[in-house]
Amino acid sequence: MTVAQFTKFVKETKHDAGTDWKDKGDPADHPVRYVNWHDSKAYCKWAGLRLPTEAEWELSARGYKGIIYPWGNDWEDGRRVTWSKQKGPKGNTTPVNAHPEGVSPFGTYQQSGNLWEWCEDVYDSDAYKRYAKGDFSAPTSRGSRCLRGGSWCSFSRSSFAGGPVSTSPLISVTSAAACE
Hints:
Helices cover 21% and strands 10% of the residues. It is an alpha+beta fold.
């Protein structure tokens, strides 16, 4: 979600998302930063969307062929994405539709950079074992939520897959991969 979209949501609903997300002065077409999982869920509900499950996020990023990055299997020195070695004009994020040459097979932008993205699921270290057996159900246990993607401050191309994280906004996260 963009700064403009989240701003509209907060104004219309009077949702209390704190101030961290607006203190950055990011342009309206950039992803909103410092939004926690609960804020992302509330935004999605308001917008008639939902957060993707980790399996949905994975399919959206890698397509049916299971490519390594949204654009293919070669990192290409990260030229197709916003990350620590290719930041936006203010030294951080870029517009959500930047790097059209790096879109996924499903047409999604920046799934391996710009900002980490929240998923609906709680983190489950055995999730991919279940997926391999055809069980794509979301984990039902309680715990930390899944993050996927990468960020403008990611220092490695291996940061494409996120792990468990608390629902607090201590890191730059958005819910850019919201599903219909």
